[in-house]
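Summary of Year 1 activities. Much of the first year was spent building the evaluation harness for sequence design. The harness presents a backbone, in tokenized form, and records the residue chosen at every position. We chose the following record to illustrate the format because it has been used consistently in internal testing since the harness was completed.
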């Protein structure tokens, strides 16, 4: 009996090899990371059926870590479980990246304003050390992945410092839909601009100037949206209404 495939849902075989064999990382985390990247870059487009067996076979692992990874992706809204279909890529990933960044900027702006009032001296000291190390790494342009991780810590400390659980949870729901920030950390000028924004936000927090911290955080995200718009324009990923979108993929490539 031929396999039932609903309208608009393509089997994995139509795309070809997407996933590579596993390495020493946790198999569950590896499956999660690779599927998330494939979804956010458009390799697996909205409405696409993600078959556990195909993913496991391509990665050279059992279906157990793939099932666990799919559960996590479902919790984050990147895939949905449908009757007789199994896991399908959510259509939420069609939301333009710049809209997600705008929402996150607004939320983190509020968090920065609150954090300026509520961060403890010990937390500010921790930010001092973090920003100093971020400056050293940016000056030498070394360890781009570490710079990405330290920027994430910077933003996490501000969110935690806001003492507002709603903001923390809301921003966490947006994170799975964001792009993996790597390109801008390899570009010298952009990396320095990112650092300058964080240094300015840090100074506002140190001065306990909530209004300034909020404004700078929003400007930081606005600048990031402008950067990605340039990338999208260069790669032909602009919608008719002028918004950026994630790259679609009809032939197994992300271009």
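For this record, the design step produced the sequence shown next.
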């Amino acid at each position: 009996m031929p396999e039932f495939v609903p309208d608009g849902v393509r089997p994995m075989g139509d795309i070809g090899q997407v996933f590579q064999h596993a390495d020493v990382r946790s198999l569950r985390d590896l499956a999660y990371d690779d599927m998330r990247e494939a979804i956010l870059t458009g390799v697996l487009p909205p409405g696409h059926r993600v078959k556990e067996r195909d993913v496991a076979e391509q990665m050279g692992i059992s279906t157990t870590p793939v099932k666990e990874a799919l559960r996590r992706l479902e919790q984050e809204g990147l895939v949905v479980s449908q009757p007789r279909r199994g896991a399908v890529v959510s259509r939420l990933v069609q939301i333009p990246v710049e809209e997600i960044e705008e929402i996150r900027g607004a939320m983190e702006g509020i968090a920065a304003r609150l954090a300026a009032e509520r961060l403890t001296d010990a937390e500010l000291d921790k930010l001092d050390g973090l920003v100093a190390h971020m400056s050293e790494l940016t000056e030498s342009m070394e360890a781009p992945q570490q710079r990405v991780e330290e920027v994430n810590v910077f933003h996490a400390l501000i969110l935690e410092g806001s003492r507002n659980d709603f903001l923390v949870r809301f921003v966490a729901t947006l994170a799975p839909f964001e792009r993996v920030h790597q390109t801008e950390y390899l570009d010298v000028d952009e990396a320095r601009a990112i650092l300058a924004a964080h240094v300015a936000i840090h100074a506002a927090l140190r001065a306990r100037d909530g209004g300034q911290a909020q404004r700078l955080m929003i400007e930081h995200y606005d600048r990031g949206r402008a950067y990605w718009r340039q990338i999208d324009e260069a790669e032909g990923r602009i919608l008719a209404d002028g918004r950026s979108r994630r790259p679609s993929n009809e032939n197994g490539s992300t271009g």
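The mean pLDDT is 83. Quantitative recovery figures across the full test set are reported in Table 2.
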